[in-house]
Design brief:
With 509 residues, the protein is α/β, with parallel strands linked by helices. It has three domains: 4-103, Udp-n-acetylmuramoylalanyl-d-glutamate--2,6- Diaminopimelate Ligase, Chain: A, domain 1 (3-Layer(aba) Sandwich), CATH 3.40.1390.10; 107-349, UDP-N-acetylmuramoyl-L-alanine:D-glutamate ligase (3-Layer(aba) Sandwich); 358-506, Protein-Tyrosine Phosphatase, Chain A (Alpha-Beta Complex). It has helices spanning 4-13, 59-62, 92-103, 122-135, 164-176, 188-192, 214-217, 220-237, 253-261, 320-335, 340-349, 375-385, 407-418, 434-442, 457-465, 496-506, and strands spanning 17-20, 28-30, 43-46, 68-73, 86-89, 112-117, 140-143, 147-150, 153-156, 181-185, 203-206, 244-248, 268-274, 286-295, 298-305, 308-315, 358-360, 366-370, 393-397, 421-424, 451-453, 473-477, 484-487, 490-493.
Length: 509
């Protein structure tokens, strides 16, 4: 239940309050002027400073809007004279986070809450954590790229990480349905834009950091610093008594993150790594992968540390990158005090991850659909399948429009390096010319192996499926779980898995 007096007191304790007040009677909080047209809602409007726009620019235009019953601002523009209460604060975004948290009954304060960040592996990791928490006798809900899911309840997702107003209301809805744990993906955009303020975390997991989203962050340093906020700001500021930070000693950004947070007394930092110099640690909270192996049927790893000695874990997930994902979750489980038997049980019962090396059933050959849409992710997939392929390895892929252009030629080079045959096609071209995107991909390809170009993605998949041998492997990469293709500004139905099955049927397979 929201009450103005305790809210203002909370703002004062956070050094946010400057002057003014708010009405007791309202039914919604928003920082989007477009939502004000929703009839029947009494809005409090927050003038937040965003990446592209500043909410203060809209204040004079909505000062007398009939659906607005109060304003929260950082300053009053000249001529701004509404006939409703105005609250002036130092930071409207932080103030709205506190308001959303209070309005929804602070749902994460009484539930176990875990967030995963990294370039690749976030979705798979959230599936694994959800299964882990079920074994830990929790009723966990999962929020991420694919969907919001809790037991029999599921709704599609539009963003990897929505705004805190949506998150807090969704957490409360899920809590009322019986959820007592939450696991979600924390994107770099959300962290940079402070969309996760107000969430009380018990655990944060870092998977990896490789090139992506440089159209937004511009530099890898800015990209890394956005990811680091999950640990240094959100997990560190949480009110939870134990705050688990799980980090890989990977010789790159994971190792750097560890050195920068290991002395933070607010966190219980646990690490994992492969045997060898970069994966070792003197810390008692370290798991070492002594050995691992992967086949088309799954993977296994032998682990030592944190009370375990040469302990084997098995998973149906394929590839070194999935060994990485599993190790992050095994480390979390051990850090939480779970037994190896319970952790293995969670791996055994984890459902398939949609669009992540997802197998498409065929009478001959091995067909996988995967979300790999970055150079590192594509390399991981192809590097994984290369030694497991008894025949030829083929890949069908494209690159998204209106996104980081620098990765296109790199992905072309990677595809040609690992695959025996490459089909370059469209991904989600959005407002760019798909043929120009393909040309940028081709600039990284030397054509020393068979390379085919099919602008239409359906025809690209058809080309990949033609004459597929019994021991051949085909990877259809880039879109994974997506059931649409974005051309221009419109979404059209398109699911790689369904399209592949339709074409196989046409071919009599």
């Amino acid at each position: 239940m929201f009450s103005v007096a305790p809210f203002l007191k909370d703002l004062q304790s956070h050094n946010l309050f400057l002057e003014g007040t708010l009405p007791e009677n309202f039914t919604g909080l928003t920082s989007d002027s477009r939502s004000l047209e929703e009839s029947g809602t009494k809005w409090i409007f927050f003038a937040r400073r965003g990446v592209a726009k500043d909410g203060h620019e809209f204040l004079n235009g909505i000062a007398r809007h009939p659906h607005v019953v109060g304003f929260v601002v950082e300053k009053k523009p000249d001529g701004f004279a509404p006939q409703v209460p105005v609250l002036v604060v130092r930071d409207a975004t932080a103030t709205m986070a506190i308001a959303c948290k209070m309005l929804n009954g602070d749902p994460t304060s009484s539930a176990f809450c875990a967030a995963v960040t990294g370039t690749n592996g976030k979705t798979t990791s959230t599936f694994l954590i959800q299964s882990l928490l079920k074994t830990f006798e929790r009723r966990p809900a999962r929020l991420g790229t694919i969907e919001v899911q809790f037991e029999d309840f599921s709704i599609p997702s539009n963003l990897t990480t929505p705004d805190f107003s949506f998150l807090q209301s969704t957490f409360e809805t899920l809590r009322k349905k019986g959820a007592n744990a939450f696991v979600f993906e924390a994107s770099s955009h959300a962290l940079d834009q402070r969309r996760l303020l107000g969430i009380e975390l018990d655990a944060a997991i870092f998977t990896n950091l490789t090139q992506d989203h440089l159209d937004y962050h511009r530099t890898m340093e800015s990209y890394y610093l956005a990811k680091k906020k999950l640990f240094s700001e959100l997990l560190g500021a949480s009110a939870k008594p134990i705050r688990h930070a799980i980090v890989p000693l990977d010789g790159t950004y994971g190792s750097r993150l560890f050195t920068e947070i290991e002395s933070d007394s607010r966190l219980k930092v646990s690490t994992w790594g492969y045997s060898g110099k970069q994966g070792t640690s003197e810390s008692r909270n370290h798991l070492q992968v002594d050995s691992w192996k992967s086949e088309l049927s799954g993977s296994s790893m032998v682990v030592t540390g944190m009370g375990l000695k040469s302990q084997e874990f098995r998973t149906s997930l394929v590839g070194r990158h999935n060994v990485d994902n599993v190790m992050g979750i095994v480390t979390l489980g051990v850090s939480m005090g779970m037994s190896a038997k319970a952790i293995q049980q969670s791996l055994d019962t984890c459902p398939p991850v949609s669009g992540r090396l997802e197998r498409v059933t065929a009478s001959k050959g091995f067909i996988f659909v995967d979300y790999a849409h970055t150079p590192d992710a594509l390399e991981n997939i192809l590097q994984t399948l290369r030694p497991l392929t008894g025949g030829k390895l083929r890949v069908v892929f494209g690159c998204g429009g209106d996104r980081d252009k620098t990765k296109r030629s790199k992905m072309g080079s990677i595809a040609e390096l690992y695959a025996d045959e490459v089909v370059v096609t469209s991904d989600n071209p959005r407002t760019e010319d798909p043929e120009l995107i393909i040309q940028e991909i081709l600039s990284g390809i030397q054509r020393i192996k068979p390379v085919h170009v099919e602008v239409q993605r359906r025809e690209g998949i058809r080309r990949g499926l033609q004459n597929l041998g019994a021991k051949d492997v085909l990877v259809i990469a880039g879109k994974g779980h997506e059931d649409y293709q974005i051309i221009g500004t419109q979404k059209f139905p398109f699911d790689d898995r369904k399209i592949a099955l339709e074409i196989l049927k046409e071919m009599g397979n």
